[in-house]
Amino acid sequence: MSHVFADAAEVQRRLDEMDYLVDEGTASALFFALTLGQPLLLEGEPGVGKTTAAKALARALVTPLIRLQCYEGLTASEALYEWNYQRQLLAIRLAESRRDNLTDADLFSEAFLQERPILRAIRHSGPVPPVLLIDEIDRADDEFEALLFEFLGEASITIPELGTFTAKRRPIVILTSNRSRDLHDALRRRCLYHWIDFPAAERAAEILRRSVPAANETLIRSATEFVGRVRRLDLDKAPGMAETIDWVSALSALGATDLVREDVVRTLSTIAKTPDDRDAITGALDQVGHARGATT
Ligand SMILES: Nc1ncnc2c1ncn2[C@@H]1O[C@H](COP(=O)(O)OP(=O)(O)O)[C@@H](O)[C@H]1O
Ligand SMILES: [Mg+2]
AAA+ ATPase domain location, by residue (predicted)? Predict the structure, then answer.
């Protein structure tokens, strides 16, 4: 299908231009998803850049991002398509007043069909297929997954009143999961799969340089190292990249050029999300040589 990238290295390069930094594994997974025209399921802890992967890919391809945010209770009428009942009712009233005859075929026709993200992605016409992001699929009820099987397998959906719609060119489909529950085997079978790890120190530092350009290099290095250390603790909510970016932004806004105990304590709300984690992270701070305290 879309041979828009020559190889995984080009994926890496083009995403880098969008300030999204991937390792080889993620670049290969994206490359094969594009080349084989198959949906890609990205799993990983919150904040490792799953959502941003889809956004950056759409920007790199200069194509629309169509986003379906999943949540408990998400239904077909929000994800696939919906009949516009109000317009149907109006049409019925109008027809009555004119003594016209309205058939079911009139009422369940294109004019009353409302596209939701999946139908929109199927019918999108453009030089490049859109990127469809089905975000946090693990938040939807597990019955919802079954609604996706036809689409994931055949890039089509069937509307009983109208027939089957098949994409002329398969949309680029990225599903993400924070792994808050296990997904159906039937869903996994229809997708390529990639687990995104928390970035290694070098890449984490580079992500920080791009995201917080004002931050000092020493601060970035110390913060990266400290987050690495903190992530090895047994925390309720280990800080992800999003938290790390917030933290370094906060420290940088305070004018910090390295980790100083006082500043770290003032900015802990960005990386410690429970009282226990706050204690654990403060404890780790006291063991770090370079976190010079005002009291020492
Ligand atoms: N590889 C990366 N390159 C650049 N920024 C990243 C990367 N990974 C994560 N980030 C940044 O971290 C934050 C969280 O990423 P996000 O995509 O929301 O994570 P997830 O969807 O996995 O929870 C975003 O601000 C994103 O820009
Ligand atoms: Mg996300």
Answer: 36-202
